[in-house]
Structure formats: structure tokens, C-alpha cells
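Our consortium's second objective concerns turning raw sequence data into structural hypotheses that experimental partners can test. To show how far this objective has progressed, the report includes one record in full. It was chosen at random from the queue rather than selected for favorable results. The single chain below, 156 residues long, was entered without modification.
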Amino acid sequence: MIQAEATARYLRTSAQKAGLVLDLIRGKDVNKALATLKFTRKGIAADIEKVLRSAIANAQNKDGFSGDVDRLFVSACYANQGPSQKRVRPAPMGRAFRVLKRTAHLTVHVSERPEKVVAVAADGEAPKRPRRAGAAPKKAAAKREPARAKSKSEKE
């Protein structure tokens, strides 16, 4: 299974704002993630798309990649806080307010989904579906009489 990552550092946005968009693509196939980012109305979506495309290209260049981009999915993505630039903003009566210009480091990990192995049944039989864990064995449906409400005279 191929894994690749890409990182963009010192982006001028807060990690919280980037995390909102990253939550939209986590666990999705890369094609669905790219489509989601294209129509997301946030400024950081273009930067995340750039990082995702870089991660896909990194996966394609790794040894052992099957060549099928459709099998790649976003296995992890996160935004870490970078250094904050401190600035001073003039305030009334000679005072000054501090302004924090935040930065973020974006990381996107992509992985290849394992191929599904299907067992071939002998003698042309269809393979049985596995039972759900903890399921009770099937019983013949017994016909029951519908419950009816008792009247006052029957209760006594």
C-alpha cells in the first residue's frame, strides 16, 4: 500500500479556518476531494487543492505505485499552527492594540486502497455471504395473534 504526503508551510491563514475545509475532504477519494475543494467557497480551498495535487503526484512517483489514481484516498489531513506575526494597531487616546497575523502548516496524506479480493466458488456455486457478527440464526416466522386491549370488565 503506497502512502504519500505533501506539506505547505507558513500559509497566511489560521489553522482553525483551514481545519474547517480539511474536515470536508478527510477520508474521501482524491477525485471527490478535488471536486469538493473546487466548489468550496473558502479562500484556503485553493491552497488545499494545490497541496492535495502535490500529494497525488508524490504518490505517483513512488516505487510500487499501481498507476491507478482512482484507488487513492485522503487518509489524513490536518492544519498545524505556524508562527504568528505580531503587529501593532493604533488605538484611541494614544494606546495601541496588538494584532496577531496567524500562519498555518497544511499536511495532506494520501494512501492507496487495497484491492478487493473476491473468492471464487467451486462447482459454479455462488459464494455465501458472511453472517453479521452476533446475529441470531433465522427461524421460521411464527404467526402471532395481534395483542388487543382489555376492557374494564376483563381486568377485574
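The partners drew two points from this record. Helices lie at 15-25, 30-38, 44-60, 152-155. The longest strand covers residues 72-81. Both points have been shared with the crystallography group to help prioritize constructs.
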